[in-house]
């Protein structure tokens, strides 16, 4: 029987246990040690108390994996079982993906708009995470938006990428003979891990090309309006410089609602523009 209330710091660790076990398919004490700075004895105690007090039977120890894996009757008790919970741990580990609707801070008068959770399953994500860590090739079944057809692809993934509206994996595609972005929700079935990858992150030229995106207020604003925008975005001397890599330029511009095809809309609609668009066009493909 669950012992309530659970201390906040222990709840965070229990959530980590559930999320990692579900989405990676393997949980060890190292996950807790590295994430929370615990000793091995405390990490082991947390896993045992999770199984005893929160979710008996959710995890089973696998000698081959040298860790715990989800049992056939695994049911999330302290999380929602959404892929975004795991993916946001990767991108914002310091926050432990705790959201305001799950944390009672004594102030209810807030509202948050979040994107719809994309359709991503543990059976898709687990092999990709494993392939990235072990530098393996993967066989996937993928549906391209171009024609809507399911196609087989052999990819060598190197990075999971989070954008405000979706998650994708950056990988070398053997058919395209180049690096591409594969949307996680468009991968079907269970990716089949293959042999060692021959193309890694080091060969991805766009990924390894550092780029600065320079944002400035829309030039059609008057000086007072520009000053408002500069304050909104924390600009310095009328500019905001964002460091990224060339393969992420398009996604970052989308995040700022910047239409590269051009600003025919009123300046109030977009508010900011790119000051070095000529330089960035080299990395934008539509």
Notable traits:
SH3 type barrels; three-stranded antiparallel beta sheet; 286 residues; single chain; alpha+beta; five-stranded antiparallel beta sheet
Structure explained in plain terms:
The chain is of the alpha+beta class and 286 residues long. It has three domains: 8-95, Winged helix-like DNA-binding domain superfamily/Winged helix DNA-binding domain (Arc Repressor Mutant, subunit A); 122-202, SH3 type barrels; 210-283, no CATH class. Helix content is 30%, strand content 24%. The protein contains nine helices and ten strands. The strands form three sheets. A five-stranded antiparallel beta sheet has the order 6-5-4-3-7. The chain is globular, with a radius of gyration of 22 Å. Residues 94-107 have low confidence and may be disordered.
Topology:
Layout: H1 8-24, H2 29-36, H3 40-54, E1 59-62, E2 67-70, H4 83-91, H5 122-134, E3 136-143, E4 150-162, E5 167-173, E6 178-183, E7 187-196, E8 210-217, H6 223-232, E9 240-245, H7 249-255, H8 267-270, E10 272-274, H9 277-280
Antiparallel strand pairs: 1-2, 3-4, 3-7, 4-5, 5-6, 8-9, 8-10
Helix pairs in contact: 2-3
Explain briefly what this protein structure is:
With 286 residues, this protein is an alpha+beta fold. The protein contains nine helices and ten strands. Helix 2 packs across helix 3 (40-54).
Which bin fits the share of residues in helices?
25-40%
Q: What profile does the largest beta sheet have?
A: 5 strands, antiparallel
Distance between the termini: 54 Å
Order of helices and strands: HHHEEHHEEEEEEHEHHEH
Strands side by side in the biggest sheet? 6-5-4-3-7
The CATH homologous superfamily of the largest domain is called Winged helix-like DNA-binding domain superfamily/Winged helix DNA-binding domain
Please tell me the total number of domains: 3
Number of strands: 10
Highest CATH level, the class of the largest domain: Mainly Alpha
- According to CATH, the fold-level topology of the largest domain is Arc Repressor Mutant, subunit A
CATH architecture of the largest domain: Orthogonal Bundle
